[in-house]
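Practice record 12: protein with FE2/S2 (inorganic) cluster.
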Amino acid sequence: MTEENKAPFDSSSDNYSEEGPRRKFIVVSTLAVSAVCGVFPFAAGITTLLDPVKKSAGNKEKVPWTKVAPLVNLSEDGKPAKYEIILEKVKDAWTTYKNVPAGAVYLSRKGEEVTAFNLKCPHLGCAVDYRSKSDDYFCPCHNSTFGLDGSVTDANSPSPRGLDTMDTKVEDGFVWIRFQHFRPNIVEKIPLA
Ligand code: FES
């Protein structure tokens, strides 16, 4: 058979009939990806909206008091102890959430006065450790060190400020705190809003 006598391309062959489903698949996949891209930022926005700490951070007076621990549980020699902060109730427009974990603090006591440091390093937010041997705080991520008063003790520490303090009070024998997070890696201590 010569080239001219060859049968023309048969459009009803298998190759052609697979084209429809393939196209459909591409269109459906594209729509699915677009939908995910659209929904993700929205979901992230909802998370931010519900974040109990961020919601009231801008105005300190609006930050609710949270009960942390009995005062007698804190060592009288000022040795820090770590406590998780659980917010009793967090409300949004539709729902009330109970016992919401918000972060952690170190509490230390001098008589009836209690100091609270956010556990997050002011550099980039890693968890700071209390080292009982050297009686100071240390961030293992980039080696920032802080004294018991929260100040930066080593000039090579990358943290731009000391540990972040928060308001505390003692009422009915319990320590209460206005728990907040702060912007990382800047000199000023600015609540996240
Ligand atoms: S996050 Fe703590 S030193 Fe960098």
